[in-house]
Amino acid sequence: MVPTDTALPRFVAAVTAVTVALVLAACTSGGPPVVGNPTSTAVVPTTPVDPAGQLAGLAAAAHDRWYVAAYTISGPGNRTLLASLATDGTWQVDVDNGTLSSEADIAIVGIATGTYQCVLGGAANALVGAGAGTGSAAGTGSETETGPPAAAASGSPSPGTSPTSSPSPPRVRAPSCVKVAQAGGRVPARYDPVFEHIFTDWPGVMLDRNAPISVSVVPTLPHASGACYSVEPSAVSLAPVMGAGIFCFAPDGTLTAAKINEGTVVIAGPAVAPAPTITLPAPVTDGPAVPVSAP
User: Fold this and answer.
1) In terms of C-beta density within 10 A (0-12 exposed, 13-18 middle, 19 or more buried), how is residue 269 classed?
2) Of the candidates 170, 181, 171, 173, the residue with the CA atom closest to the CA atom of residue 108
3) pTM for this one?
4) 156 and 217 in contact (C-beta within 8 Å)?
């Protein structure tokens, strides 16, 4: 409603009185009058600024990230690693030359029934069926291990043989799998190539803000991408909750590189979609499992 000529002076006077009251209130309170919604609050940044918090956020993304990716492993031999993280939580990490002092290709597989070490092949596989002594010809396919010729009845060694012989090389049946731990259990160090931990249980430690680890930001590893962090387990822990190293993650949680005592892995290409589940790549045997280092 537009004020009439007679009501206009009263309307102007009322507006002037309200304006004066607001100005006086501002002067009394020591600040300018509030404009807009007085209950609104400023937006507080939620991105952690401390290294441990930043890593925890990336590790949380990694913990819920499923993919398949190939990696290179530093050092001689052009070794590779393939990480397969299925959508149902099962996983498989293949390591070229991962056991017997880099003589056997293996996979560490985690499924509902336990953790398995699977020998897939490699140079050590050539020892299967090969004769270890003079009584068997190499390449015959015989799986019977023969030793040095039997000693004569007098106990003296046969001519041309040494009284002491070197131990026979280890024999590996491939492909085959051996259960090395219960589901979620610890793989004995003798059979553990370690690389699988950077995809499986170590991210769970990194995302725990109460874990006894120290975290710092470090430069990106060569040929890697994303953000990199150095992680050191606390010296006061009776048993380290994870291994020390440098870990690099893309914003979506994909591991792009890691440097640990066993070597440096760097992603070799884009990660691809995962499988729904992982199954064992070979039949299960009674073992024993293959040691990481040759006897």
Assistant:
1) exposed
2) 181
3) 0.70
4) no
Whether 93 and 199 have beta carbons less than 8 Å apart is answered as: yes
User: Order of strands, edge to edge, in the sheet holding 91-99?
Assistant: 176-181, 114-121, 104-111, 91-99, 79-85, 68-73, 263-267, 255-260, 245-249, 227-233, 213-218
> Cis (ω within 30 of 0) for the bond into 233?
no
Distance CA 80, CA 105 (A): 10
The dihedral through the CA atoms of 12, 18, 21, 26 has a sign that is negative
Distance CA 274, CA 141 (A): 38
> How many angstroms separate the Cα of 61 from the Cα of each of 103, 253, 277?
35, 5, 20
Model pLDDT for residues 26-66, shown as the tens digit of each residue: 444 444 444 334 333 444 445 678 999 999 999 999 999 99
Tokens, residue 84: 């397969």
